[in-house]
């Protein structure tokens, strides 16, 4: 067992070193390209690699922060794909979903009670042919606003969570639930609900009517999103810490799997910790996560949050039929909590 773990660690170290070497060749080319497109103050934040099993070629994804004369401070999400690889689940897929969501959210006749926006606006997108790593590749670029307040995950880290009061935590849960409910009403499953995929936008004006939810949270990262009526992801796809039991059993994504992920996030918002954890030394992390989600009991909240326990129990029910059937039911329960608690 120790030998297998050692081999796995060595393989990861080699892959990381190889990616760093490839990045040293790719990033200067991308920087020059972004400069030619009128972006400045370019700062590459993240780069990752994904193997394509169909043709043994690699896709590269990255996030780059920059300044633009028209858009101001922006975040560029990009994907570099081998010219022979038509990756339908890539950034082009996400751009299409974002366009659909933003168009539907803007249709006030259909969404009278929705947030003004549930996802960041698309500022620009394009596809270019570039030569990188001695081969021609397709570069897809998606430009969105940069949100300096970061994501909900930033608010839940060890340093910041202790300063959150009851009202702020409740506010985060209600607004997140509104976002997900509106997304489902628009006909989409997110499939990767978690704090790092909820952005804080502190610069949208408040509604004049205080009864409306203030639109200062936005959903992001729709790479795994699917049409609600025709889900196709049967294998466990998403972030293991938030993945519903049925997803580990190769069942398709549903509204209930998004609800389960929201339940995990509720516990995290309230307590600052995810309800399920695995050992960093686990030899088979996916199996360890599956055991946690499928076999471990629903967590009991600390006494000061006991009024949320019924909601947690129904959101994290192991069996789909015992779980909330839609996000609107969760919203009703959240909004019915006695204000004296807050």
UniProtKB/TrEMBL annotation:
Record Pfam families: Pkinase
Record key words, sorted: Kinase, Transferase
PROSITE patterns: PROTEIN_KINASE_DOM
CC terms in the record's Gene Ontology section: cytoplasm
SUPFAM superfamilies from the UniProt entry: Protein kinase-like (PK-like) (SSF56112)
UniProt cross-references to InterPro entries, sorted A to Z: Atg1-like, Kinase-like_dom_sf, Prot_kinase_dom
Domain called Protein kinase: residue spans: 60-342
GO MF term list: ATP binding; protein serine/threonine kinase activity
Listed SMART domains: S_TKc
PANTHER family membership: SERINE/THREONINE-PROTEIN KINASE UNC-51-RELATED, SERINE_THREONINE-PROTEIN KINASE ATG1C
Protein name: Serine/threonine-protein kinase
Species, as recorded: Psychrobacter immobilis
Lineage of origin: Bacteria, Pseudomonadati, Pseudomonadota, Gammaproteobacteria, Moraxellales
């Amino acid at each position: 067992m120790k030998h297998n773990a050692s081999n796995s660690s060595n393989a990861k170290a080699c892959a990381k070193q190889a990616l760093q070497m490839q990045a040293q060749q790719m990033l200067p080319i991308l920087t020059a390209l972004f400069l030619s497109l009128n972006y400045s103050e370019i700062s590459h934040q993240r780069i990752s690699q994904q193997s394509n099993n169909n043709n043994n070629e690699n896709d590269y994804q990255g996030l780059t922060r920059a300044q633009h004369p028209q858009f101001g401070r922006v975040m560029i999400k990009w994907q570099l794909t081998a010219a022979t690889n038509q990756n339908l689940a890539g950034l082009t897929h996400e751009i299409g979903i974002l366009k659909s969501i933003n168009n539907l959210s803007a249709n006030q006749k259909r969404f009278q009670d929705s947030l003004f926006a549930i996802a960041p606006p698309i500022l620009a997108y394009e596809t270019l042919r570039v030569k990188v790593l001695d081969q021609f590749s397709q570069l897809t670029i998606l430009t969105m606003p940069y949100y300096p307040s970061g994501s909900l995950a930033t608010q839940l880290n060890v340093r910041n969570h202790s300063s959150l009061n009851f009202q702020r935590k409740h506010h985060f849960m209600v607004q997140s639930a509104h976002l997900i409910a509106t997304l489902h009403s628009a006909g989409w499953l997110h499939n990767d609900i978690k704090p790092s995929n909820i952005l804080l936008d502190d610069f949208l004006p408040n509604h004049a009517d205080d009864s409306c939810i203030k639109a200062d949270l936005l959903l992001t990262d729709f790479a795994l999103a699917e049409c609600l009526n025709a889900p196709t992801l049967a294998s466990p796809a998403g972030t293991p810490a938030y993945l519903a039991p049925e997803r580990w059993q190769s069942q398709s994504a549903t509204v209930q799997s998004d609800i389960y992920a929201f339940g995990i996030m509720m516990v995290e918002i309230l307590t600052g910790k995810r309800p399920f954890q695995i050992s960093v030394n686990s030899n088979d992390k996916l199996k360890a996560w599956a055991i946690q989600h499928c076999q471990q009991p629903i967590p009991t909240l600390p006494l000061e949050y006991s009024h949320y326990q019924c909601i947690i129990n129904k959101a994290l029910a192991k069996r789909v039929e015992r779980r909330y059937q839609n996000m609107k039911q969760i919203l009703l329960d959240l909004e019915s909590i006695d204000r004296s608690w807050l």
